[in-house]
Amino acid sequence: MVSPRPLKLRTQVGRSATLPAAGDLPVARVLVDTGVFHLDSTYDYLVPENLSQSAITGCRVEVEFGHAKQEGLVVERIAESSNSGPLKMISKVLSPHVVATGETLELFSDVANRWAGAPYDVVRSAIPPRVALVDKESFPINDSSVEFHANATLPTELQKKKNVRSYWHLPPSLSASQALVELAIERSRYGQVLLVVPDERMRIAVVEELDKQGYPADRVAQLDGHTSRSDRYRDYLRMTYATARIGVGLRGSVFTPLENGSTLIVFNDSSEHYFEPRTPGWNVRDVALLRTRKSLVDLVFVGYSPSLELGRLIDLGWLSLIESSCRMNIKAVEPVLGELLPSKVFDVVRKGLKGGPVLFLVPRKGYASAVLCRKCRNISICSCGGRLAQQNKSADPHCVICHTVYSHWRCSWCESDEIYIAGRGIERFAEEIGRAFPNYPVIGSSGEKILASVADLPSLVLATPGSVPLAENGYSAVVLLEGIKFFGHTDMRANENAREVFFSTASFVRPEGEIAVVIDSSHPIVAALTRWNPAPMIRKELVERDELNLPPFYRYITVGIDTKESIEFKNGLISAISHGRIPSSTKILGPHEGEDSRSRISLAAPVSEAEELVAFLHEFQRRRNISRKELLFIRVDPYSLS
């Protein structure tokens, strides 16, 4: 194993330049898209005099690297290089526009170090591909003011001009898109606003709400891969040049350049959508935290229940908590074994139907996620090993893997042909609820069919998490079915996700509406919803996590490696601990053999010491690349440890 020693590859030496170099600051430090993991430093190039005015910090250039032409970003211009030999020249400036500021260039490097990756892998996620036609456009700074008065309904702390670093716990009966837009418009009085949301559905809702509240469309940028390539690049440049005042985007937009005094708003920080699947696997919450530590940008997290990572920062006082505590009308309904719709829920539903739509939240989409034998309860398995499921009551069971249909199904154990449905989904609930409350329309929203809104009429609306349609005046009642199943997942984030789902779904109720939760009345979520305050649950879980050395107090790193190398790698880590090259507190779990001859090793270290461990793995990865060995699959702070 090796000690982390940063490589110092900082120049590209070539034949003497034939063009005259720039008279002022003739050397450019360039971050080059080398495509080689260990060649991740900046490199010095001469700037030709004819490119001196356009080869500025943050612009895209083409340079010769080795014997190939590669794209790069100018990081800075300097008077002279520390290399004594001749330097290669920048071939050309690819775009007249600045696509990265000094602050975002530093952020790319910080993110690469934080997640043990290469800076240009971060750049590819952060900066949209260039479009030649858009490059010909100009983006003058828009000095026209947009008159919006201070929003007196917002918490006082969010109306401050600067030094805002908060988590805003949203109140009930206020749509998230409306709250986000009101906050964004308020903050836009002081500077640019970047609003990051987890999915396309919320992005559309926010943009529509901005239009509804009369905010000028020419001051809004949509920073999203769902728009056309030209529009995405154009809107990115509009934010970079401060032509746009409010930017709304998904995960990658968190890197968008902002002027000093701007505000970065992140909605629902615990969403899985915020975790970048590509290497190096950064996430929006931690990038936002990194960004505000080194720049003059205010930071506001908004949501119904914070992640444990933010809960820890709130307890430390690093983030202020803006509460929206109030008393909610909550009715806990004890679940009855085998009963799909507990009878005690009926009164809540009947009362709600007198005034408008009633919302039911169910854990799963589909009809049935598992087929059992009614007689012996044997789980039905296909010959390929996959479980059998059922799409609707009259459908034959089918395999979830190979899709084989069993039109004459019989239990492989007792030969019975009677089916018992387990893991009931939204369509099975729709059948039961429709029978229990006839003469009312049953409306479903899940999977590929997600509704944006429903009419303000008496109806039975069923939805899965993240698929709840808006009701114009809110729902007259909300029923959270099979509550314990939301908390029953094996994933370490199960409680965190369930809290967010329960609070966000309950927020759709009208101020006078009732919420029924099918769960034991002693469960802490009942008291949390009643007081509209998730903090006690979060603090309790943080205490437990701290005692068990789990995130967010320990940083976890998963390493995927060829099974043949796994034992040697683990022994090398043990040796590195004994020689003081990585923290002595480092825990090593595994290796655990998986599929395709791959194994996984998990490492953990206290947050205060984890940077040293990540730096060691980062350098080890570079050395493997130099030796032409396969790179390890490294994920720092992954979404799931399962």
TrEMBL record:
Ranges where the Primosomal protein N' 3' DNA-binding domain occurs: 29-128
Electron transport found in the keyword field: no
Coiled coil: none
Gene Ontology MF term list: 3'-5' DNA helicase activity; ATP binding; DNA binding
InterPro entries: P-loop_NTPase, PriA_3primeBD, PriA_3primeBD_sf
Keyword terms of this UniProt record: ATP-binding, DNA-binding, Nucleotide-binding
Pfam families in the cross-refs: PriA_3primeBD
GO biological process: DNA recombination; DNA replication initiation; double-strand break repair
Descriptive protein name: Unannotated protein
Species of the source: freshwater metagenome
